[in-house]
Amino acid sequence: MKPNHLVPVAALCIAALAATTVVRAAVSADEASKLKTELTPFGAERAANKDGSIPAWSGGYTTPIPGFKNGGKRPDPFAADKPLYSVTARNMDQHADKLTDGVKAMLKKYPDTFRVDVYPTRRTASAPQWVYDNTAKNAVTAKLNGALIEGAYGGIPFPIPKNGMEAMWNHVLRWRGEAWQLAIKGVQGTGDGKHVVTAVAQGSFQMPYYFKDGSADKFNGQFWSIRMLTSGPALRAGEGIVGREHIDGDKTQVWVYIPGQRRVRKVPNACCDTPTPASAGISLFDQTDVFNGRLDRFDWKIVGKKEMLIPYNGNKLLATPEAETLSKHHLNPSAMRWELHRVWVVEASLAQGKRHLAPKRRYYLDEDTWIAVLADHWDANGQLWQMGFSNPVVMPDLPGTTSPGQFGFYDLVSGAWYFDSSLADAAEQYKIVPRYTDDTFTPEAMTGISVR
What we know:
Elements: H1 6-19, E1 22-24, H2 29-32, E2 85-87, H3 101-109, E3 116-118, H4 129-141, E4 143-145, E5 148-150, H5 164-172, E6 179-189, E7 195-206, E8 222-232, E9 240-246, E10 253-258, E11 263-266, E12 298-311, H6 315-319, H7 322-325, E13 338-350, E14 360-366, E15 372-378, E16 384-390, E17 393-395, E18 400-402, E19 407-411, E20 417-420, E21 430-432, H8 443-449
Antiparallel strand pairs: 1-4, 2-3, 4-5, 6-7, 6-20, 6-21, 7-8, 8-9, 9-10, 10-11, 12-13, 13-14, 14-15, 15-16, 16-19, 17-18, 19-20
């Protein structure tokens, strides 16, 4: 081999080695100290933007909402707010730099019905002090080993992210509370404007990663648990699904109970672009909460941070009756609240040797909460295919601003769409509950309470 061939070969070897070892160590203590000065405890910029349209963060919204009882319908604490302006197909060019590709596509596809009503920005994000304390610890201890995360617990793992994968782990491990119960109603919108109920269910959720009395050295890697018991429609009544999600995707386990078979089956590939039984196969596993999948399927890149219009403080959607919420081709714009916020823009490109129905994706992570609020998906032909969305809600009783299972996507090609969960008519929407026993999230427990 000639000498001039040695350099590229060596470079390839080094790159291959780097891909299998620790990507990055934690930030320094000096850099982490910014979480108490110029940055919020979760790593967002404390200061307002230049023109004040995004205010400074002053601790979030923790004022109890009058009349609210845990488990009941959540009122809109900002119901008196009026839109500052609306973005439509006619004026979208004036706001193009603050709109995602997916939002622009929806404005063009439905120029007479889709719009973005922009309200005053309220930086409501908050969390308990112990979560902030854990986040500060994570900043100097958390690291990536390939696609796996180590040395993090009970808080945002990378409040000062240096790469796209760290930013996405922040979304996956965002603050959502320890345990909660959620009414679930999935609705599919067809291309010709019909609505089809895919599931009516009750969900039990738990995040062992956020057990207050836990620690990084005791954490076994299982960070999220779900049990969903379906009562409708009639075709699906009695079905159940249990999932235990692990930091190491190879250790994630999901089981389903099918009444007609009277047995529990383990889902062999509960990941990525596999259709999830929880949505009757309409949504993919990694479209849950806009993104909830294996991070090793993609290469991740931080494109930058931008001021963007995103759904936010969406208690209005919870309070709007379902009959007024579901329009023919999208959610009713009058039920949605959009605000101007700074977001991290993270791009995902399919990793070498992997496959996915959407090989290119772009995510928009709210800087205050790390919620992936919007997403754009491109198909294998490079065509913009889907727009993903979630609806963050302010919950001072948690405290926090989080997405209560309300997410979905618009298919920009077929015109079909999906919304999970339509909670407006539910007597009990989202209830904070004591920690479940671990055996709640087992196939045996699901078998015992499912309809046979």
